[in-house]
Amino acid sequence: MTTALSGEDLVLCHQEPIRVPGSVQPHGALLALEDVDGALVVRRASANLEALLGVAAERALGAPLERTLGDAAGEAVRAGLATLGEEASTVAGEPRRHAFALELDVRGARCRLDAVLHGNAAGTAVLELDGPRAADAATSAISVHALQQLSQRLHGADDVAALAGTIVREVRALVGFDRVMLYRFHADDHGEVVAESVVDGWPPYLGLHYPESDIPAQARELYRRNLVRCIAAVPYTPAPILPTDAEPLDLSFSHLRSVSPIHVEYLENMGVGASMSISLLDGERLWGLVACHHRGPRHVDAAARAACELLGTTFSLLLPRLEAAESERVAARLRDVERELGRRLADALPFVDGVFPHLPDLDDIVAADGVASVSPTGTRRTGTTPDEAALVAFAGWLARETEEAVFASDRVAERYAAARDWPEGLAGVLAVEISRPRGQYLMAFRRELPRQVRWAGRPDEKPVTRGEDGRLRLSPRRSFAAWSESVRGTSAPWTDVELGGAEALRRTTLDLIVATNDEVLRLNDELERSRESLRAFAHIAAHDLKEPLRGIANYIAFLTEDHGDALDADARAKLATIDRLAARGTALTDALLQFAELGETSGRRVSFALDDVVDAVLEAFAPELERRGVELRVVRPLPTLVGQPVRMEQILTNLVGNALKYTPRPDPVIEIAAEALDGRVETPLDRDSFERRSHVVRVSDNGIGIPPEQHEDVFRLFKRLHPPDAHGGGNGLGLAIVRRAVELQGGRVELDSAPGRGTTVRFSYGDRHGEADA
Amino acid sequence: MNDTPADGERRLEEPAVLLLVEDSPEDAEAMRRAFARAGIPATRIIHCSDAQQMLDYLERRGVHGDREELQLPRLMILDLNMPGIDGKELLRRIKSSEQWRAMPVVVLTSSVREEDVDSCYRLGANSYLCKPGTWEELVALTERTKRYWFDTVLTPTIRR
User: Fold this and answer.
1) CB count in 10 Å sphere of residue A718
2) Which of A455, A475, A468, A27 is nearest to A268 (CA)?
3) Which residues, 6 or more positions from A225, have their beta carbon under 8 angstroms from its beta carbon?
4) How near does any CA of chain B get to the CA of A586, in Å?
5) For residue range B20-65, what is the model confidence (pLDDT) as tens digits?
6) Quick one: pLDDT band at residue A745, thresholds 50, 70, 90?
7) Which of A163, A158, A129 is nearest to A24 (CA)?
8) A100 has which bridge partners?
9) 3-class SS string, B52-86
10) What number of other Cβ atoms are within 10 A of residue A722's Cβ?
11) What is the mean pLDDT of residues A435-462?
């Protein structure tokens, strides 16, 4: 992890006057010129003028340039100024520059000097002169042929990594530094050495990371604008620019610009005697630096600097194409993934149960330690994943707290604290939203990687110290030995291909859902038709079955009437059995018909007194209630409800019938009560329906009860818990009819029952806000 | 078993009082026996096994066309589910006819569909009864029907 700049650091960086240091490096001299009525007057001069050219700065100041350089060189500078007006700037929008050579006499000897002219904001021209050429200077001008070869090698690179390797090799060959690195800025601006060419015996820096604060924003901005930067020898004594009391000159574009003392200390700590950097741009953005270090002093002359700048700009020009090619390779892989997914999913069509169960696991697309598909109706897990409850909780968090359709993190605990409790150090997660409202996600998990980040020095070493005057000062890190930091709670990052594959999976899924919709509509039609046939069948079955059953019953009666005398007891008993069976068949077809007809008519909703319906039901059961000595407890008055009284009668008839049937004791009790819901939430029943239903109606008995494990079964069609002849022969439809009738009215049924404790059936009923139909 | 009582058994002083439209011979037999118990012997029942026969009887055509009654029986018991012209259609024709509409018609069917109940009453049925599943219930129902339509209410006189 990088050491992020604190606010204090930033203030200090801004305070550091790196653009206007007021001095130059001592290996070259600087003059600022002003055109006064055709005469070029020296307004500023670096104090080392005398040491380099034998002319005291004090003498040069305020005098025409010719007094310092002589007439011939003065003429060359005038020519250079004229050319400067025609030059294009290297970096768009920045001042123009013109480099040329000067010949002049220094202390009586003829010398060649590299000169650079550039304008500055103040309207003056700045002339920078390298010191007279020394014998140990790096190669001077290289041939056009050699430059062409360099350019060709850069063009030959197939990808960014090859390009980086090529440029560090070629720059090192060109300028002969001990170490040439490609320092790439990451998205958070911390740096990493991604290519290196280094002399034998020096430790490699390849793969090292540098905190963002090593090259702060202000310095990065200068690198972006000034493409080649040299520091010829450290440590050095800066040459002040005279007069010192004048407004400091902006030296942003000066190659002689004196370097920040902090940077000098930084280089010294690394054992560096000279450095050069070449800026690499991706459009406007500083993409990286070719950073060159040499153990001793090393001067790079103007021609070599120009060649380096050319290499850098070539690199910058090639970069977008190679990065685009890399993106294209990623995109091509993604298209393959997408095609493959589409083909596999299409093979699985049609999805009667929805698309979700058919989706492939994410580990088809990404490398993961575990994968899961999470849906409230069921969770599928493979490999190392959080448990089901944790997955559902995480899916809930994703739905509530994230915006992304594809959520990816290599350290999810930083955003989702509960992830700290996930097993086996799971730290990375990739989640693909299939349906947010349904809470359906595909997820992939990665364990934390005890990732080693090799830092150049301890990244947490304080970059700020307090100087003798008590003020805070920046001071660079002293140790540059590679320092490894073990990163916990972080998994391997999700790559662009993986993220794109996840997105492709999501897109394919959505396409399929749309396609499946048609299929669902068709199936709906089919379903509607088969429901219709089923209703028709139920009618026909009921009618056509009932007729012969009725006939059997009747003819048994006729046989007994007409020929009773001829029948013995055994024959009569057998006839009685036939009669009973026929009666049961009739009851069964009646119930079946009733059930089939439940969904058929929506029916009118009216306001009715529950008391009246209960009376009617109890009246129908009166003979049996009396015969069995049932104690009836009806909590009167019962409320007035809005709904369908016929349905209510059906419901209560079935419930009272069941209560009678399953309470085979000498002291049966049947209780009927109703209470208003009033928006109260006390039971799941209330919660599900209190908003729409006005009341809960309850029918209780003190009968045999129902074991909890059968509470769901009893509501199923034809699910009978007892043998056909026990308890007066239930037909297995009673509670199914009750549930359907209640649910058709928008209510819910629940059961409170246990063996020996009796049975209570509660159901919600009545339109809470509804009005009776007119 | 015969669909209709032999003509010889019928006497003039005992005119038919009940029209029964029932396509199932077994149900018809059960009805005859049940009404006999309730006090209306089979001789006083005219049974038509489909709607066409009933129309023929009313219009003095076909099987029952030669019957001598000038006055219609007091009550019609009508099954709904019949081949050919079904019970509802027959009901509709009777109740939309100036001549016959006053005749009380009791629908007796195995259908408990609300839709059937509603439409029969809308067509003008005078009551709607469901065929019971057991003999005892049929006897009880028949007795109640007889008591109501023959002993309690007055019925119109309709000439044929």
Assistant:
1) 12
2) A475
3) A91, A94, A252, A253
4) 6
5) 999 988 889 999 999 999 999 999 999 999 999 999 888 888 777 6
6) confident
7) A129
8) A115
9) HHHHHHHCCCCCCCCCCCCECCCEEEECCCCCCCC
10) 14
11) 69
What whole-number distance in Å separates Cα of residue A649 and Cα of residue A96?
97
**How far is residue B123's CA from residue A177's CA, in Å, rounded to a whole number?**
111
Contacts of A632 (CB under 8 A, 6+ apart): A618, A625, A670, A671, A672
> At CB < 8 A and 24+ separation, what contacts does A528-537 make?
A531/A599, A534/A596, A535/A596, A535/A597, A535/A600
Nearest to A547 among B24, B132, B135 (CB): B24
- Which long-range CB contacts under 8 A does A720-728 form with residues at least 24 apart? A724/A584, A727/A661, A727/A662, A727/A664, A728/A661
**B26–A593: do the CB atoms touch at under 8 Å?**
no
Cis upstream peptide for A350 (omega within 30°): yes
Q: Which of A539, A543, A554 to mutate to test the interface with B (most CBs of B within 10 A)?
A: A554
Residue of B nearest to A554 (CA): B135
Measured on CA atoms in the order A374, A380, A383, A387, is the torsion positive or negative?
positive
- Residues of chain B with confidence (pLDDT) below 70: 1-13, 65-66
Q: Which of B111, B114, B133 sits opposite A549 (nearest CB)?
A: B133
pLDDT at A294: 94
Asked if residue A419 lies in contact with residue A429, where contact means CB atoms within 8 angstroms, the answer is yes
H helix or E strand, kind and range, residue B114: helix B114-123
Reading phi first (left if > 0) and then psi (alpha if -120 to 50, else beta), residue A424 is in left
What six digits make up the tokens of A340?
A: 């493959």
What is the arithmetic mean of pLDDT over A505-521? 75
Interface membership of B152 toward A (CB under 8 Å):
no
Structural tokens at position A459: 């990244």
Strands (E), A141-298: 179-185, 191-198, 209-210, 228-231, 239-242, 274-282, 285-294
Average pLDDT taken over every residue of chain B: 86
